[in-house]
What does this fold into?
Amino acid sequence: MGLSASTYYYRPKVSRAVRDQAEAELRDRIEHLQAEYSCFGHRTLKIQLWRQYGLVVNKKRLLRIMREHNLFRQVKRRFIATTDSNHTYPVYPNLLKNLEVTDINQVWVSDITYIRILTGFVYLAVILDIFSRRVIGWALSKSIRHELTVAALHMAIQARNPNPDTIHHSDRGVQYACEDYVRVLKDHQFQISMSAPGNPYDNAFAESFIKTLKNEEVHLCEYESFTDVVERIPQFIEAVYNQKRVHSGIQYLPPAEFEDILQDKKRKISLGQVTLKLVK
It folds into this structure.
């Protein structure tokens, strides 16, 4: 057509008022996401803007807005020990070293954390499937005794009905090494794996979830009673973490959506195999 390259790529300039309005709308959306997911970094926030609003935002622009309006995540760091490994129960070797995890129900990891209330603490035991990052079992109690971890384990087993030889990994705490907990694992033919002493990296996936829970829920609320915790924590686990919160390790998808896609692919492969057999 005889046009220069600069003419082809030309875009009319927008007015300052239009730019300011677009900037304000983007800031409002960022603030909304940060209110719901307070610890999103800019990479995850960029993905969530696209998923939730269909917005494709330049990284530099996103960082500039977050910096100008103080929208970066705020992290609080505290630590109270919940692991008591000073016991006489047998401990088991770490089975996760150099292990390639390729499917759900291949490896479960478990851990315990605390939640402060006005009169003391509430304890939360969780079990995650590390392939999908999904929380599959959890329990809350005012006591840190082994009944707490056993309840979370029963919930996970009922929800997933795992195959024999699923690896169950935990720290060496008495709540996981005691006879009642180990008996349930053996009854369902789990392979038992435990972290090396004093090495939290062996249980990094469970630690990562707990960090997310603390930063995006616990530290933002002022729980007064056990009832407050019971009302809020399950909502965060099931409705937010499992269903909405995206994870970089699973293609920036929420755990439930990632598992649905995985199961759909398996069904298609299975149907393809059946069709192939019929053709033969």
The first strand starts at residue 107 and ends at 117.
